[in-house]
Write a structure and sequence with these properties.
single chain, alpha+beta, three-stranded antiparallel sheet, 2 helices, flat
Length: about 90
């Protein structure tokens, strides 16, 4: 029977309760030409639906109200799909 390998103890991570802001630093390597070629777009609620289950501090994110409902039935054992929801969709 082999012994498990020695593992170092986990390093505790201590973050402050509030992360204070600070001024942004300029990136001198970026110019106007480089930013013109960046791919991206502004998301709207119609493009990116987000449904968050906030029941019992669950905070899981779902792409549709139907998927959130399936999660509620499976993980929370409830048919309630109208309360404790955060969304920007109506």
């Amino acid at each position: 029977m082999s012994k498990p390998p020695n593992q170092p103890p986990p390093i505790p991570i201590h973050l402050p309760a509030v992360l204070h802001s600070r001024p942004a630093q300029t990136d001198a390597s970026v110019n106007a030409g480089a930013t013109a070629n960046i791919l991206g777009k502004v998301a709207t609620p119609q493009d990116t639906p987000i449904w968050i289950c906030t029941l019992h501090d669950c905070n899981r994110i779902f792409p549709s109200h139907e998927r959130l409902g399936m999660h509620r039935k499976r993980d929370h054992h409830t048919d309630d799909v109208d309360s404790a929801i955060t969304t920007w969709n109506s």
